[in-house]
């Protein structure tokens, strides 16, 4: 599979309401947009049914570290507080808020996609396995904070898609978060709960985290 043939979609999670009050928004590399989880799921399902491989990202923590030291359980993941990029740990303020929303919105979207597609389609958390297979659904985490953010929630989703595109052909090499050892994979749990996988290994498989490149200083 050629990486540039992948449809890339990202969602900024949040309370789903009618325009302009919705705090949920999604953007697709084909230009499609929306403000509801249902339209996101239907769009992803239509891409998959058309035979396109899809990389679907959610802007919320999709895995958390399981450390040995009890004093460090809520510490930031490695890479979250990069120099010059602000302090944005998964367990504090915005990170914790989006994690909570994602706990319900991510599996809801995955369940609707699963029920909508016409054939049995595999899901992946490993980019290279996804590319080798040639089709299916790849899940990733979008990490868009502070100075990286776009205009409103739709802008954040678009920034995430563009960051993924810039990371091609091997986004795994630009993984923004990692090196923490064991993790509890929230996206793995969501894939199990919604029938995309039966492998319990998913519960400790982290996913790719894509963060936009730092913007040049003015």
- Report the structural category: alpha/beta
Radius of gyration over C-alpha positions, nearest whole angstrom:
16 Å
Strand portion, in percent? 15-25%
Low-confidence runs of at least 5 consecutive residues:
none
Largest sheet: 7 strands, mixed
Number of DSSP helical runs = 5
* Total count of strands: 9
Order of helices and strands: EEEHEEHEHEHEHE
- Overall, the morphology is globular
Q: What count of domains describes the coordinates?
A: 1
Terminal-residue CA separation = 39 Å
Can you give a write-up of this model?
The chain is α/β, with parallel strands linked by helices. It has one domain (3-210). Helix content is 31%, strand content 16%. It has 5 helices and 9 strands, in the order βββαββαβαβαβαβ. The chain has helices at 37-49, 93-116, 127-133, 152-167, 186-193, and strands at residues 7-12, 25-28, 33-34, 54-58, 63-65, 123-124, 137-142, 183-185, 208-210. Helix 3 links the parallel strand 6 and strand 7 (137-142). The chain is globular, with a radius of gyration of 16 Å. The model has no long low-confidence stretch (mean pLDDT 89).
Brief descriptors of the model:
two-stranded antiparallel sheet; alpha/beta; 31% helix; 218 residues
What are the SSEs and their pairings?
Blueprint: E1 7-12, E2 25-28, E3 33-34, H1 37-49, E4 54-58, E5 63-65, H2 93-116, E6 123-124, H3 127-133, E7 137-142, H4 152-167, E8 183-185, H5 186-193, E9 208-210
Parallel strand pairs: 1-4, 4-7, 6-7, 7-9
Antiparallel strand pairs: 1-2, 2-3, 5-8
Helix pairs in contact: 1-2, 2-5
């Amino acid at each position: 599979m050629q990486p540039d043939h992948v449809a890339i979609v990202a969602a900024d999670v949040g309370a789903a309401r009618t325009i302009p009050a919705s705090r949920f928004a999604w953007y697709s590399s084909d230009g499609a947009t929306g403000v509801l989880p249902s339209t996101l799921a239907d769009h992803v399902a239509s891409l998959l049914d058309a035979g396109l491989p899809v990389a679907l990202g959610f802007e919320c923590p999709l895995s958390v570290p399981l450390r040995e030291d009890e004093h460090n359980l809520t510490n930031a993941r490695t890479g979250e507080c990069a120099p010059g990029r602000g302090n944005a740990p998964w367990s504090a303020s915005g990170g914790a808020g989006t994690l909570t929303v994602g706990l319900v919105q991510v599996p809801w979207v995955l369940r609707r996609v699963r029920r909508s597609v016409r054939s049995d389609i595999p899901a992946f958390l490993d980019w290279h396995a996804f590319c080798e297979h040639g089709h299916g659904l790849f899940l990733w985490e979008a990490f868009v904070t502070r100075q990286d953010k776009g205009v409103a929630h739709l802008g954040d989703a678009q920034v995430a898609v563009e960051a993924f595109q810039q990371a091609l052909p091997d986004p795994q090499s630009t993984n923004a978060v990692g090196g923490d050892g064991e993790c509890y994979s929230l996206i793995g749990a969501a894939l199990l709960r919604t029938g995309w996988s039966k492998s319990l290994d998913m519960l400790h498989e982290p996913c790719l985290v894509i963060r936009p490149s730092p913007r040049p200083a003015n």
